[in-house]
Amino acid sequence: MQVGHVFAELLVRDLTAAQAWYERLLGAPADEGIWRLNGGASLRLSVDPERAGRGVLTLSVADVDLPGGASLLTDPDGNTIVLRQPQSTPDQRDFHLLVKQRGLERDAAEAVRLLDEGFAALAAALRGAGDEHAAALADEASEHLRTSSPPDVRQLRITLRTLPPRQPGVDELDKQLDALDVVLRRRQNLGRGERWVGT
Predict the structure, then answer these.
(1) Residue 198's pLDDT band (boundaries 50, 70, 90)?
(2) On the chain, which terminus has fewer CB atoms closer than 10 Å, C or N?
(3) Is 78 exposed, middle or buried (0-12, 13-18, 19+ CB in 10 A)?
């Protein structure tokens, strides 16, 4: 197989904001929505709010001084842009760890967001039922999720078990706590015995 051209596409949520960011990065506006990076590569942005922010694009750049031969950037949607000096050869293991690390960080952030919304909704329901004490506990759990990095899953489980039983949404919160626990453990174990790639 002989490849004549490489065409990269990154998924974004807001095309106008993303195009402005990439114009600053690449130093030129897109031509009919496409950046022709050189004779053999092009970049296009597409809107897909559900899948945006999961892309990785590596650019070999000769005209930028990069300490250590590489630099990492994140666009407004969370896509990872790796800038490398032409003479540097990517270490595939490091690159693989970087992609896994970024994916786990996004998964953890999404799990925290869903839990925060769930505890806030539970607090509102408890308050509506006149149980101010239980509502305050749910509010504390929501606050913990917004301010702790990483959140203490064990403490959140204890809070959930102390709330009145059979409340709407409690089973779903328990499942979401399981999902967050798995992501946080995977993130903690990522790279054990291997070198982590800093962001």
Answers:
(1) very low
(2) N
(3) middle
The pair of structure tokens assigned to 108 is 């953890």
Q: Are strands 56-60 and 70-74 parallel, antiparallel or unpaired?
A: unpaired
| pTM exceeding the 0.85 threshold for the entire prediction | no
Q: Which residues contact 4 (CB under 8 A, 6 or more apart)?
A: 40
| Interval 131-140: pLDDT, tens | 999 999 999 9
Q: What is the DSSP letter of 152?
A: -
Q: What is the DSSP letter of 31?
A: B
| CA 150 – CA 41 distance, rounded (Å) | 39
Instruction: Tell me the CA distances in angstroms from 164 to 78, 115, 121, one per residue in order.
Output: 38, 18, 15
Residues 6+ apart with CB under 8 A from 2: none
Digit-coded pLDDT (tens) for 106-115: 888 888 988 9
pLDDT (0 to 100) of residue 120: 92
pLDDT at 81 over 70: yes
In which order are the strands placed within the sheet that holds 34-38?
6-12, 41-47, 34-38
Which residues, listed in sequence order, are joined to residue 57 by a DSSP beta bridge?
81
Report the C-alpha gap between 136 and 3 in whole angstroms: 61
- Give bridge partners of residue 7 from the DSSP assignment: 42
Residue labelled with tokens 């092009």: 42
Torsion of CA 92, 94, 95, 99, to 10 degrees: 140
How far CA 137 is from CA of 61, 123, 180, in Å, comes to: 52, 8, 20
The total number of residues written for the chain in this structure? 199
